[in-house]
Write a structure and sequence with these properties.
It is built from 10 helices and no strands. By secondary structure, the protein is mostly helical. Helix 2 crosses helix 3.
Length: about 200
């Protein structure tokens, strides 16, 4: 009986769990701040005010704003991967996953705002997210290109299209639709518009 009571009794959270939770809270607050104001416009003070902590506490987790941005971008990518993994061995499912991702983004404008705000700034070589965005686009072209190549091999890519070039266009359409949607959210439908476009290059 005593063993059962001990098993049923909730365990107290240890210091590591509390620390991980606090770190996640900081990253979530920074996510919102960077989404609304970009990297250069966001301040550590504004991030602290969102969650009611002191700046020294944030600096104990992230020594500078650039490292905090890195954590925010990792969170964004993780959320994207959770929607639907891209796998060239399952090309049609992966195409559908891209459409699902755009529908998800439409329901979560903060993700889109973060991408648009930071991407514009990250063009500059001295921006702390410059390398992250450059690497991300290279990886996206590679992954989507492999998926479209598999679509071609299985007869689902429209005739005459080059997978590598088409991958660049797919990424451009995704970014372009998102930017337009942020400017005019009442007139653009990310998932629907993107799905219509994908049907012009892939039979799925």
């Amino acid at each position: 009986m005593q063993d059962a009571e001990r098993t049923a009794r909730p365990r107290k959270r240890g210091p590591y769990t509390k620390s991980a939770d606090r770190r996640q809270e900081i990253v979530e607050a920074a996510f919102c701040e960077f989404s609304e104001n970009g990297f250069r416009g966001a301040t550590m003070k504004a991030i602290t005010e969102r969650i009611g902590v002191t700046q020294p506490l944030i600096y104990s987790y992230f020594p500078n704003k650039a490292e905090l941005l890195t954590a925010v971008l990792e969170l964004r990518d993780q959320r994207g991967d959770d929607i639907g993994p891209l796998d060239a061995s399952r090309p049609i499912e992966s195409v559908r996953a891209l459409v699902k991702l755009m529908r998800h983004n439409q329901a979560h404008p903060g993700i889109v705002a973060l991408h648009c705000a930071i991407a514009g700034e990250a063009i500059m070589a001295d921006h702390p997210a410059h390398e992250s965005f450059r690497r991300r686009y290279v990886q996206a072209r590679t992954r989507i290109g492999a998926i479209l190549e598999a679509c071609r091999d299985s007869g689902h890519l429209k005739k005459g299209l080059d997978p590598e070039r088409s991958a660049r266009v797919v990424i451009a359409v995704m970014d372009g639709l998102q930017t337009q949607w942020m400017l005019e959210p009442t007139t653009e439908r990310l998932g629907e518009e993107f799905e219509v476009f994908m049907h012009t290059i892939v039979d799925f």
